[in-house]
Structures are given as structure tokens and as C-alpha cells.
Amino acid sequence: MSEENRPQPVDSAASPGASAPEPSGVDLARVALRAAKEQAKARGAAAQQKKQARRGGGLRSGARADGRDPMALGAAINRLITERGWETPAAVGGVMGRWPQMVGEDLAKHCVPVKFDDDPDVRVLTVQCDSTAWATQLRLLAPRLVARLNEDLGHGTVRMIKVLGPGTPRRGYGPLRAPGSVGPGDTYG
């Protein structure tokens, strides 16, 4: 070959418009090896997924503890309460169960917690008393009782105690009711 026909090497620094040289030899081997490794990795991941699907979708627990392992009933209930956001109603329910220890035996015999309104704007504990005297006594003790409950349950859990007096018996008009009457005033007329 004459020198005129021989291809001349291109200096990339000398000619700014020239493209990067094509990889050859060792560079081609490296590119091919990298591509083969990526394909093998993808095939391995697909095989692993198929294997887990055959075994039940990977739902088996290994040697270490994870969220799928069995747990004690108390721990499961506490987890459920936390996940659902039932901390305040559960705590107030506990107070209703421990009412005699919190307010004393005498008061607990005559005053019973009926309901708790856990609306964030309200947070009222309703208590039913069996006489007006005990209702008055509880109204006098209400600020201290609210402080005691909030000390036990957390600040702001109970804002107010609503005290109900003794409930009047349900009016059943009885056997003296005249036919066609609308109330107790019509029974003797």
C-alpha cells in the first residue's frame, strides 16, 4: 500500500467537528461484558420473582423477626389501636372501667360515667348521678376531677364534665288511660 491510500489517523483535538472514535479491541470487550452482566442480572431477578411466586409470593418469614410474625394478643391490640387512632377513646374507656379507683368508692356508687364525646372541639365526659345531692357534689368536684383525668390521660383529653341528675322514670300511662286520650290529663274526664 502506498502512503496515499493508507488511512490517516484523525486527531480529535485537531479537528473539533470530528466525532469520538469507535471503540475497538479491549473497549468493545468491556462494553459487551457490561451488557451481558446486565442481562444476566435481569434474568436472575425474573427467576427469583418466579421462584417466590411458586412459594407463595414471598410470604414466608425468615430467621429474623418482621411484621408478619405472630405476636401476643395485647401487642396486636395495642398496634391496632395505634394504627386506627383510637388512643383517646381507648384511654377514656379505661377510665370508665377504673372509675371507682379514680373518684373513690362513695362517689362511684352514686355517679356513673355514661359517655365521652371525643370531638376535638368538645371532649366532654357525661356522668349520671342517682340523686340531686350527689350531682351537686360532683359539680363541685368537677374541676379537680378534670385535672385528675387529664393527669392520667394526657393534657386536654377531657375539657369538661357534664353532670346529669337522676333520670325520671319513663312515663307509662298505665291501665287507667281512657280510650282515645292523649295524655295523663284526659284519664278522668
Q: Mind explaining what this structure looks like?
A:
It is a single chain. With 189 residues, the chain is mostly helical. 45% of the residues lie in helices and 10% in strands. It has 6 helices and 3 strands; from the N terminus they run αααααββαβ. It has helices at residues 26-54, 73-84, 87-97, 99-103, 105-110, 132-153; strands spanning 111-117, 124-129, 160-164. Strands 1-2-3 form a 3-stranded mixed β-sheet. β1 (111-117) and β2 form a beta hairpin. The longest helix has 29 residues, at 26-54. It is elongated, with a radius of gyration of 41 Å.
Helical amount: 40-55%
* Structural Rg: 41 Å
H/E order of the elements?
Answer: HHHHHEEHE
Task: Provide the β-strand percentage band.
Answer: 5-15%
In total, the number of strands is: 3
Give the overall average pLDDT: 75
The description of the largest β-sheet is: 3 strands, mixed
Inertia-based shape = elongated
C-alpha end-to-end distance: 140 Å
Poorly predicted runs are none
Strand order of the largest sheet: 1-2-3
Structural class: mainly alpha
Please work out how many helical segments DSSP would assign.
Answer: 6
